[in-house]
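Fill in residues.
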């Protein structure tokens, strides 16, 4: 889990997600298979990257 991506500040207050440069995403889910693939994805900052990132061709979502 990455707290920077959720909709809350470190003190638990809600972020102003309408503010420019404020990252607010719902982060949920659990990898149940293929963690080796997840770990092989290159870390990259889109704001400074000079080459394309990895391409994800298939994601399988199971609802339980």
């Amino acid at each position: 889990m990455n707290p920077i991506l959720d909709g809350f500040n470190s003190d638990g207050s809600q972020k102003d997600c309408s503010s420019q440069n404020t990252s607010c995403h719902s982060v949920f889910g659990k990898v149940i298979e293929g963690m080796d693939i997840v770990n092989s994805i290159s870390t990259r900052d889109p704001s400074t990257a000079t080459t394309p990132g990895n391409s994800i061709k298939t994601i399988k979502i199971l609802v339980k």
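Helices lie at 35-40.
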